[in-house]
Amino acid sequence: MTGRQPEPVSGKVSDRTSENILLEVTDLTVRLSSGVPAVDRVSFRIRRGECLALVGESGCGKTLTALSLLHSVPVEVGESRAASLKLAGREISNPPGSELREIRGGRISMIFQDPRAALDPLFTVGDQMVETLRSHLPLSRSRAVQQALSALEEAGIAECRRVFRSYPHQLSGGQCQRATIALALSTGPELLIADEPTTALDVTVQRQILDLLIGLGRKKGLAVLLITHNLSVVAQLADRVLIMYAGQIVESAQLEEIFSGALHPYTRALLDCLPALDQPPAEPASIPGTVPQPGEWPSGCRFRPRCAFAAPGCEKEQALEAFGRESGRLARCWRSAGIDFTGSGGGAP
Ligand SMILES: Nc1ncnc2c1ncn2[C@@H]1O[C@H](COP(=O)(O)OP(=O)(O)O)[C@@H](O)[C@H]1O
Ligand SMILES: [Mg+2]
Fold this sequence. Notes:
Elements: E1 6-7, E2 21-32, E3 37-47, E4 51-55, H1 62-69, E5 78-87, E6 90-91, H2 97-103, E7 108-111, H3 115-118, H4 125-136, H5 141-154, H6 160-165, H7 173-186, E8 191-195, H8 203-220, E9 223-228, H9 231-234, E10 240-245, E11 248-254, H10 255-260, H11 265-272, E12 321-323, E13 329-331
Parallel strand pairs: 4-9, 4-10, 7-8, 8-9
Antiparallel strand pairs: 1-12, 2-3, 2-5, 5-6, 10-11, 11-13, 12-13
Helix pairs in contact: 4-5, 4-7, 5-7, 7-8
The chain binds adenosine-5'-diphosphate and magnesium ion.
Pfam families: ABC_tran (PF00005), oligo_HPY (PF08352)
Family: Belongs to the ABC transporter superfamily.
Subcellular location: Cell membrane
């Protein structure tokens, strides 16, 4: 027994530095076109200048959450709705078209897993950058060209003039991702969303791209929402972590709290999949079982069928509850108060 006692919280998490909040999301839900929710009343905040990681296996609703922040969930996929969505204190849950254009790619930029898909194959990198810059900022063409070249240089591209004149297919995956990072940052956004930004890249360049992304974010004082299925990606980069499972946030904590003692068995199970530092590299481990699809979520705790700690009581709906007054730490597991999950794996045997 640890003696930690949960303190129920209402929708808003107390925060003494609320003036530093850049984005505040309250009760965001995404319904698929079938009417079934795929993201279920998600609430979180991003502070200015912080790197917040959103972590969970594939199919948990991370990408739909991110797209919702830009009102970019494709209509044929579904519809997002939030009780409130505030950017720098201003409500943007239902912005007029002109404001939405200013937000998308201006105040909030997003980069994706596949950098080639983010670039138009019919135009050179330079033409795309110049057009994006001029659609958001009052720049002459020559000024926009200069700004694009310096953004490419800042993104670690040595031959920035060649890359500027290249079509996406003429570049390596790593160069393409550097170019999309340059494109995303060139308009001076306040928030950068990076959705699995290195998953499609060679292992050798993954680390470089992550370091670049987070380094540029820090240098420019940007808030970064880093989305990944792999906790090891966030290990040295994020300030805070949100763990997502089956459409819900199940844990929210500072990075070091996650690695020193996860509160939710799902977080524990993700940690157990990380390779041990003293072991030779092996096939990546995975949690037994699969994430239930939207519409097939079990009642009560959605991780219950895969959880080694499941017990009578887990079939009841679990609230996201606060642990400790200071850190804003949250977990959605009634057993977190009484069980030390750090000893053994949280995944079912
Ligand atoms: N384009 C789509 N068409 C149909 N269903 C989708 C689509 N995108 C997402 N979904 C549904 O929403 C769930 C969550 O998707 P997503 O947000 O992409 O998860 P993640 O990014 O965590 O892998 C998926 O498992 C799927 O059931
Ligand atoms: Mg995704």
